[in-house]
Write the structure tokens for this entry.
Amino acid sequence: MASFSHADEPVCRQTGDPENPLLSKDGDIILGGMFSFHTSWKDRKDTYMHKPLPLQCTSLNFRDFQFAQSMLFAIEEINNSTDLLPGVSLGYKIYDTCGSIARSVGVTLALANGKEIVSVPSKTPCTRPAYVQAIIGETSSSPTIAIGTVIGPFYVPVISHFATCACLSDKTKYPSFLRTIPSDYYQSRALAHLVKYFGWTWVGAIRTNNDYGNNGMATFTETAQQLDICLEYSVSFFRTDPYVKIQKIIDIIKASTSKVIVAFLSRADLNVLIHEFSRHNLSGYQWVGSESWIFDSQTAAIDKHHILDGAIGLSIPKAHVSGLREFMLDVKPLNSINNELFTEFWESLFSCKFKGLKSTAEAVRECTGHEDLTGVQNSLIDMSLMPIFNNVYKGVYAVAHALHNILNCNKTCNNNMQLDHFTILQHILKIHFKTKEGDEVYFNENGDPAAKYEIINWQPRENSTVEFVTVGLYDTSLFPEKQLNLQNKSFIWTRNSKQVPVSVCSEKCPPGTRKVLQKGRPVCCYDCLRCAEGEISNVTDSVTCVRCPPEFWSNERRDACIKKEAVFLSYEEIMGALLTAASLLGACMTIGVMFIFFKYRKTSIVKANNSELSFLLLFSLTLCFLCSLTFIGQPSDWSCMLRHVAFGITFVLCISCLQGKTMVVLMAFRATLPGSNVMKWFGPAQQRLCVTGFTLIQVLICIIWLTTSPPFPFKNFKEFKDKIILECALGSAVGFWAVLGYIGLLAILCFIFAFLARKLPDNFNEAKFITFSMLIFCAVWITFIPAYVSSPGKFSVAVEIFAILASSFGLLICIFMPKCYIILLKPEKNTKKNMMGKKAPHSL
């Protein structure tokens, strides 16, 4: 508004061209309405040399015409009601915005200020009460954003029936905006969950290039990323874009590998694209749609080549407003309200023109004004958008209920109360009522209703029609895991298929593999690599392989850990059985020799070789053979300690006996020399003491070893990847090598003494046989060390057993087999005379 003076009378009048309502009616309280009765306008070239002309709107839009009718129906119903606003009549001022944001802003100012010239006293601000108490509209988000920005600071309530942009929930920017349709924030998230439900992780996206499409797709993209859904492409489009933009979109779709297209498009934009997609035969894609087009029969009618067949998406729950259909089809009263609009509407509906009237209808048939609506196949008689009509209806009733409360209406209303926009806004936010059809109407703190959607599936029928089948529900008021609820109904997908289409960049990685991202590509594109040995993945699409616990190993498929095979030298396997047999054979042979020696104990050869030490040696050799059995079988605490201790003590006992024998032979020779008195220092008692002393030293070493750090059972996981080697850990390596070292020391001393006594004058000199046996013993144990260290697992135990058996057999065969040969096969040599011999002694 601006202030101007004519003579002495100050007046207020609006600057610019006045905006006139397309439909209007007086009443006690006026409601504003803003709808796009036309979808476009004529181009004009402004030179700025003259004042620009007003927009000339073209292309009558039956959809928004129906929205306006819904508003008129609600107002008429309220005015005829005795329960709601009794005694108060509602009027309306409904404007045509022509789909122009600029015109929407101008209409907003007109609704707020009016167009009358107002006289005001001198020096008084040029102000007056607002023209309307609330505004119903707009249909789309972008003009609604402009309206909310302009009118928001004045707190004039704006209630939209179809503006879904999530941005409008921001009360700091749009404090007076409310709506009866859910925010796209919920729809976008619901679409992402729907896509995820069917396993589509690789999709394309097309959006309307305005606030509705851009904001909706932004929320969808954010949610999709959280759900591991990737967008192969995301393109924007607006119906006024040049053809080259459409061609670029078609090229992108053709070059893509995804088979699902998420279309966050307005109906008008999709209708433009459908024609071009049909020309290029872009069929076979699964479409996922937003509420703006998914249940629109007009869009289905345009889709002649069935591009959208099988589409799935979200829609506002079905609704019914009794009496509304009949009201909409009875358009003749429009003739009395706005003759010009009625004329344009009638000519567009019947493709005719009235005689003598200037008309834009391209038809030759003359209109009579009495044509029959029942035979018209037009979107006017299509009630598929009844949920949106219901949203307009609920918006008008929300304002009426708020006014009812403010005016303290009972049987009558307080008409003298001054209405305030902020008060009306507060009361609208607080209302909670049910319509005559039972629909609950209320708003949250952001001015949004509860978000509930039906899931719609386009199912083609025989006569080239499409049926919008409700196949599920999405309700944000429920727990997250229960919000998406698909009914047990048969779906029809693209190309009339009953099979759910597949749209993934990479197939799912089965258990036993892990995902490895492809360089430079989205996270949905990956390769499946088999898990390494010892690692598993037991879920589909695992990003990592988990290493099995130490006692387990991966199976062949790498999807489960199985217990590793426990490996030890057992009696059941061939090697263990052979070693056991050799051990028992050696023990039996030793016992046999012992029996022979006992039977022939009074013969010369037995007496000459110190029978007491011989029997002790045979006993110790028997223990040596038998101690090897402790190395076979699963290691335990007692077997680990027993095997090393028994081995160490029995071998020391054995070598101590040989040491005693050797020293006896050597000392006996020394005793025959003149003046020698050495035998009295090495008699039987001294021999026993020597054997006992040597053995006790080994016993002491073993005791120290067992008390400080004894051998113990040990599971070796390092030798073999897929097996557990059960072995005996040495505990203290010093103790083990002390036992072996002591045995080795005695063996070397015994070898030296035997070597010195090998040529003594005796026909059967035992020392040379002891020399051979010690030579074999030392050779076996010297080769044992590297073989033991380098042999893996149970083979190291087998090497140790073999060394024990080889050295024991060496002692048994070298020392006792020659004697047994003479005793059993050459008894004539088993005489004292033959034992003494006749040869001269050799010098040492």
Summary: The longest strand covers residues 466-475. The chain has four domains: 2-41+57-182+322-330+385-442, 184-315+451-496, 513-563, 581-832.
